[in-house]
Amino acid sequence: MSFLGIDVGTTGCKAVAFSVSGEPLATAYEEYDMVRPRPGWFELDPATVWSQVKQTIARAVKEASKDPVTALAVSSMGESLVPVSKDRRILGASMLLIDRRGEEYLPLISSGLSAEKLYRINGNILGIQFSLPKLMWIRDHTPEVYQKAWKFLLWSGFVSFMLGADPVVDYSLANRTLLFDVDACRWSDQIARIASIDLEKLPDPVPAGTRIGSVTGPIADELGLAKGTAIVAGCHDQCANAIGCGVTEAGVGMSGMGTYLTIVPVFTGRKPPQSMMRWGLNTEHHAVPGRFVSFIYNQGGLLLKWYRDTFARAESEAAQRMGREVYPDLIREIPPEPANVVVLPHFTVTGPPEFISDSSGVIAGLKVETTRGEILKGILEGVIFYHKALLDSSVETGIALHELRAVGGGSKSDAWLQISADILGRPIVRTRVSEAGCLGGALIAAAGTGVFHSLEEGVRAMVSLGDRFEPDASRQRLYNESFERYRALWPLMKDVLRT
After folding, report:
1. Do 207 and 293 belong together in one domain?
2. Alpha-carbon distance 411 to 448, whole Å?
3. Does residue 331 share a domain with residue 225?
């Protein structure tokens, strides 16, 4: 008996089978590219991604055949929707959160609902990144897609649906649409009326861990899964990451080091809207019942991919031909001391507190002797400084963090984890399984089929911790000096960089 966690992200998908003790038995991964049909448009082709997802599942299932998969759950990025028909046909592209379409609808939404009222209902601050304004754009600019669509599914629900599940969405991903009532745990009629959205086109919300169907018929044969393999409702990828590194209680946070560099604190009960809104912090259901999470994020991993493709494309392609990643080689080039360059990581849509959709990045302090390693060090520092600024400023919310658990591809780097600990002034613990999102999905699948009585019991059985990185006081002082230069940069460039 094993459990399959499937994680569908912005640039790639993974499938990992785990034993009941949390041992990874099989892993598969496929990468795909964003589609950019016009400036400011960022999409995924669902047919291409679905094909890649099937490949990852089939490879993982085959490799784990000695311990067959009995249940699976899918975690995924938030916000992006896939239009589907009742007979499981894909009807259109999936706009990503950084896509700027729908921006013209923000004034209409805000005129019908104050910022505080929206937050009290949905726990989010109005922005272009959410599903709602993009769904309004689809309705008005591609009415044939909107009218034909039976449901618009978040990616976790889409993959589960294509595998044979009912069309549903868990509470955490439902929140990312901007249409969900956090307290009532249902779609908000009030928000839908203001936006003129037909709620029948959205899937039914369910708690993460709900059994939502089984893999049957031709798709089971195609993927090598046993007919009747249980499909359990997954969750937002950041919540799955948190589960996979044992972050279920307040005081400990998850540091997800993937395409988005994200800190996820856990808390109980809703915090005062005014203080949360001041710092751009959302409130979202955790996959753990009775817990909430918030997100402090930027596109850190996306900047590293940009750096790789811009400064080391040939080396990256050579490494790929040899079946390995080039990132460890690039990280070895960074200097041990703080960088002399300062990087403002606003290369695309920013996260909290301002959610700027029309900014640009900055690399300041370049000289003819500046090495590419120093530029990379500046990027690493810049994305962590972004987090430090918000963590230092948001103490009034009552959300405290005394330790972070690191997961994702970036967590494999000792250097990056030590830089993070030194800048943030908090210990960072690496989990033994770096692909915590898939482990979180597997945990949800196991608990959802009764193998564990709760997710907490599953965490105790399946999650184990590894190396611990403590802040170094001397380096922390040096980084504090660099941080002050970073803090001065955005006010100076704010008006210049808006496009």
Report:
1. no
2. 28
3. no
Q: What backbone phi and psi angles, to 5 degrees, belong to 80?
A: -70, 135
Q: Looking at the predicted structure, is the pLDDT value of residue 470 above 90?
A: yes
Long-range contacts, 103-111 (Cβ 8 Å, 24+): 103/128, 103/133, 103/357, 105/132, 105/133, 105/136, 105/137, 105/195, 106/133, 108/194, 108/195, 109/133, 109/191, 109/194, 109/195
Q: Tell me what the pLDDT averaged over the chain comes to.
A: 94
- The model's pLDDT over 153-165, given as tens digits with 9 standing for 90+, comes to 999 999 999 999 9
Residue 434 phi/psi, 5° resolution? -70, -30
> Do 176 and 302 have their domain in common?
no
Between 238 and 6, the more confident residue is 6
Domain that holds residue 37: 2-245
Regarding whether 428 and 340 lie in a shared domain, the answer is: yes
User: What pTM was estimated for this model as a whole?
Assistant: 0.85
The C-alpha angle with vertex 248 and arms to 243 and 252, in degrees rounded to 5, equals 105
Residue 94 sits in the same domain as residue 210: yes
Asked, for residue 441, whether it belongs to a domain, the answer is: no
CATH code (residue 235): 3.30.420.40
Q: How far is Cα 45 from Cα 36, in angstroms, rounded to an integer?
A: 10
Whole-number Å distance between alpha carbons of 428 and 77: 24
- Written as one letter, the residue type at 72 is L
Q: Which two tokens stand for residue 248?
A: 């279920």
